[in-house]
Amino acid sequence: MSNDVRQKQIPRPINTDRAPSHGRVLAPLKREERCPSDVEHRQIKYRNDVIECHHGKPKRIIGATLRFTSMKTAYATVKGIEVMRALREGRAASFYFGHPLGKMRPVSRVLEMQASVTRPEACPSSCLQQCPGNRMAVQVLVVKESAYGERRVAATPETVKRLGALGAQVHVEPGAGAAAGFVDAAYLAAGAQLADAASPAHADLVLCVQPLPVAALNQLKSAAGVVGILQPQADPARAEAMRARQLVAFPLERLPRSTRAQAMDVLSSQAGMAGYKATLIAAQLAPRFFPMLTTAAGTIRPSKVLIVGAGVAGLQAIATAKRLGAQVEGFDVRPETREQIESLGGRFLDLGVSAAGEGGYARQLTDVERAEQQQRLADHLKSIDVVVCTAAVPGRPAPKILSAAMVEGMKPGGVVVDLAAETGGNCELTRPGETIDHGGVLVAGPLDLASMGAVHASEMYARNVCNFVALFLKDGVIVYDWDDELLAKTRWTG
């Protein structure tokens, strides 16, 4: 039978008494439900088929339904139809495949579909507003990071599924997760779509890791939401672009420290990976074994490692150095960290200076306290083989703890790894992104340490972001509750 003859055939009506034969497109499913405004059912015609708008089913109250005998037939028939663009631009309701046995599957997974179905004129605006099914899914864009050396991604296939369950349609820029081991095919299998050049202009919410460039911010539509480590105060041009576009910006580094916020705390999750990697870098640079060894050539003493700062990164560094077999000490100006350090097998270094501050962070030391601390620390460093610096306060320059004189007093072959290099470093000699030799002591200032463990760092970051987005994305609608402390205190208003 020729193609022309097949196209002119009229689809047979569905016989509900028996399963229809496979391979034939059947007539649209007839429904008796009426919309809330009692408007008569409308029909949208394209090609030789009819799509029937209907109301009355939870979670798909209005939509266009085609009845097919098999998913294979459905995919072949819909290929080439411009449904997805109509959905994205708000010109059509959601489209579903209707299986003969009643199972519904969204057409949105068919990536080949493109352009031109329009919403029927017969549907008045009052009906469109009353029918939840007429609301377009929230468009979420996951960007491919453009910062040099950044390998993380703001969403994984796991969190794409979760965002879809919240009512979002996720668009992922091609190759966004490749450096972290998440290929495009994995995102497509999770229900995402690959973004195109027009995606930023249609996105209701943008997820990122590093701050977006000004050019990328200018492409976003007005009042779009942006979630990530945005650092707006670090770049006036970036801050101005956010204000000009009236973006609802949520710099996650501003998230309050509370029990409820722990599942969204990106600083803590990424600091854990950074502390782990910093210790491994120190072990690699050190010209000594970390553990004690008993060999035929005699006994090798373990390296003495000092971790400066006992936040999340510092505690992870202590745990990692201890697992490598080193003798580990931890130093922090907050006395309450003693128990945490000792619980990981480290020894708390008490220099007699306390600087406990608000929010779990250390306060600024006075000049007298700083002088006393540095003198005692300099004396102690003479016996230390490796120092890992992790002290940092979000939004502020890193405190200077190790002076050049202290480093010069260390043993030849000593190593200093400064995890805080991105914000100036805890050591006066730190050069961001470089490793230098100062009088026989190596001083390393690695950048973006969390990105070195991109797979697990991305998984943790993506879960943090998804948990935060769940605060305001529910049932396919974005609603910002500014009475919620986490939203109100995290939002950046300029």
From TrEMBL:
Superkingdom of the organism of origin: Bacteria
Transmembrane segments: none
GO cellular component, one term: plasma membrane
Cited Gene3D superfamilies: NAD(P)-binding Rossmann-like Domain (3.40.50.720)
Keywords: NAD, NADP, Nucleotide-binding, Translocase
Enzyme class: translocase
Region (Disordered), start-end ranges: 1-23
Coiled-coil boundaries: none
PROSITE patterns, per the entry: ALADH_PNT_2 (PS00837)
InterPro entries per UniProt: Ala_DH/PNT_CS2, AlaDH/PNT_N, AlaDH/PNT_NAD(H)-bd, DDE_dom, NAD(P)-bd_dom_sf
Occurrences of domain Alanine dehydrogenase/pyridine nucleotide transhydrogenase NAD(H)-binding (ranges): 283-445
One example of a Gene Ontology biological process annotation: NADPH regeneration
CDD domains according to UniProt: Rubrum_tdh
E.C. designation(s): 7.1.1.1
Catalytic activity: NAD(+) + NADPH + H(+)(in) = NADH + NADP(+) + H(+)(out)
Record-annotated Alanine dehydrogenase/pyridine nucleotide transhydrogenase N-terminal domain positions: 141-274
UniProt xrefs under PANTHER family: NAD(P) TRANSHYDROGENASE (PTHR10160), PROTON-TRANSLOCATING NAD(P)(+) TRANSHYDROGENASE (PTHR10160:SF19)
Protein name: proton-translocating NAD(P)(+) transhydrogenase
